[in-house]
Amino acid sequence: MRQWTRPQLDRERQEFFETRVSGRPEIWDTLKVVIGLLAEGEIQNAQVILDASAVTVPTGDLMNGAYDEVGNFYQMPEYIISDPNNVLPGSQENIVKGESASDATDEDEVERRREEKGKGVLKTGDVIRVKARLSDRGGPDIVISIGKDQNIRVLVRRIQEEVNITGKGKVKIAYLGKILKDGETLHAQGWREGHVVNALVFQ
Hints:
The chain has helices at 6-18, 25-39, 43-52, 78-81, 101-117, 152-163; strands spanning 4-5, 66-67, 73-74, 87-88, 127-134, 142-147, 170-175, 178-179, 196-202. The protein is α/β, with parallel strands linked by helices. It has a five-stranded mixed sheet with strand order 6-5-9-7-8. It has a two-stranded parallel sheet with strand order 1-4. A two-stranded antiparallel ribbon has the order 2-3.
């Protein structure tokens, strides 16, 4: 029976999602995020993302596959979804969710410094108003202003500040059933001005 080290397992999981040629890329990205959440025991949050992306799991078990809204089938090997029993102790690499915690923190800090340095410099034409609908509460949508060249990470931070999401609270941005990438801009991911984005709030 094959034995895995943690780095090997994480690397093969990453390669699996990067080499899919069937189905829709945004659905594979969604499943990648969902598997990461399930590994942390965040079942409810994983279901929120599946629902927002219109992904169904008919048997309730990802090992039996999932379907997108147009009927494409997404099958994943067992070792992609959960750790095999024979994983050897080794360094932890959080690749399943796409980036390590330290990488995310470093990028967030760089973006924050860049944003702070550029405060007051943005021209009117460089600013976009984004209407966001929060998943954890009723009430009116909120409107956030950011620079058109600023990425999703900035939008998330502004939303957290606007509605006072602190501590372990996390926010993921979804648009047209797709979880948007934190390091890219809205426009780069197909968003059109005036359209509402979904802010999926995880506590």
